[in-house]
Specification:
CATH superfamily of the largest domain: Histidine kinase-like ATPase, C-terminal domain
Number of helices: 7
Distance between the termini: 45 Å
Bound molecules: adenosine-5'-triphosphate, magnesium ion
Strand content: 5-15%
CATH topology of the largest domain: Heat Shock Protein 90
CATH class of the largest domain: Alpha Beta
Structural class: alpha+beta
Order of helices and strands: HHHEHEEHEEHHEE
Strand order of the largest sheet: 2-4-5-7-6
Radius of gyration: 36 Å
Helix content: 55-70%
Length: 312
């Protein structure tokens, strides 16, 4: 406001001066000559002043932009720092204790091996083996999770019929389903194709279907359905298993909460499976959610896009 009035006043002054100079152009009074000179000097000075004002405006604009990018970088750094903290806390809590258990069991076995029968030794070694399996799975999950966090896993999407992936996942998990006599049913039509990364969708299906098998008793049933929704498809993995209370449902998909329970045949887990599913679905701009009733069963839902323009 002030600046504009200063420039307006300067314009008015120049106009007035022009008139005065025009009116007295034949005058040879020294005062008039001095006035002309002063007026020219003043105009030059004002021009310089305007240039400085313009430069300072530009500098302020740049300063504002720099401030904004510093704020943005700071937010990104805070986010990264929180992720790093979570990562280390997982290592500290979830990796340390099973490792400790593994080492204790090993020491125990070495010290007392003479006192045990062959069968007992085999049993202890099997226990060591399954603890090692779990540790390895936890490490693998941690690595996948950290690679996603670091942006190292890139989406490689293409169009494919999702029911083929469901069948492949069933083949992969058939032996654990058979052991529990659990029926696997794929109701997805082979006409439905999605635009997604098949490796990631395969990991998502494997996690959800293996959970369904893990938390369902013998003679249960697992059904995969799909529905076309606005702009995409919704896949549903339904089991007739143990279900979950509302309190437990609230602990799902959260990296800061470690929630894992043994399966109906005492299968152990890492508690990272669903977190990985969520990360991978979000990479596709999709969503994952759950409906469950204790004693009745659980359905996990996830959505995927059908169009390439709808995922980033
Ligand atoms: N279908 C389900 N029915 C009942 N509870 C479930 C089901 N799926 C998940 N849960 C609960 O959510 C927890 C977390 O699941 P998640 O897949 O993240 O880890 P996990 O299965 O324990 O370990 P991992 O996936 O590494 O084997 C499970 O331990 C279980 O308590
Ligand atoms: Mg799981």
């Amino acid at each position: 406001m002030k600046k504009r009035s200063l420039f307006t006043r300067e314009n008015e002054r120049q106009e007035r001066n022009k008139e005065i100079i025009e009116d007295h152009r034949h005058s040879d009074s020294p005062l008039y000559q001095e006035f002309v000179q002063l007026s020219e000097d003043y105009s030059k000075l004002f021009k310089q002043f305007s240039r400085i004002v313009r430069m300072s405006d530009k500098a302020q604009e740049q300063l504002k932009e720099s401030k904004e990018s510093i704020i943005r970088y700071n937010e990104e750094l805070q986010q990264l720092n929180a992720t790093k903290d979570k990562f280390f806390s997982i290592i500290a809590h979830d990796l340390k204790s099973p490792f400790q258990a593994f080492l204790n069991l090993n020491t125990f076995l070495v010290k007392r091996i003479d006192r045990y029968s062959k069968e007992e030794v085999v049993e202890l070694i099997n226990e060591l083996g399954s603890t090692a399996d779990n540790l390895f799975k936890l490490l693998e999950n941690l690595l996948s999770w950290s690679r996603i966090q670091m942006g190292k896993i890139q989406l490689e999407p293409n169009v494919f019929p999702i029911n083929q992936l469901v069948n492949m996942t069933f083949d992969f998990l058939i032996s654990s389903a058979k052991t529990k006599r659990i029926k696997l049913i794929n109701n997805i039509s082979n006409e439905i194709s999605v635009y997604a990364d098949p490796n990631m969708v395969s990991t998502i299906l494997r996690n959800l279907i293996s959970n369904a098998i893990k938390f369902t008793q013998e003679n249960g049933k697992i059904t995969i359905n799909s529905q076309i929704i606005e702009g995409g498809i919704q896949v549903e993995v339904t089991d007739t298993g143990v279900g979950m209370s509302e309190k437990d449902r609230e602990k799902l998909f959260r990296i800061e909460v470690t929630h894992t329970t043994p399966g109906t045949a005492d299968e152990k887990g890492t508690g990272l499976g669903l977190i990985l599913c969520k990360e991978m679905i979000e990479k596709h701009n999709g969503e994952i959610w759950v409906e469950s009733e204790p004693g009745v069963g659980t359905t996990f839902f996830f959505s995927l896009k059908l169009q390439s323009s709808e995922i980033t």
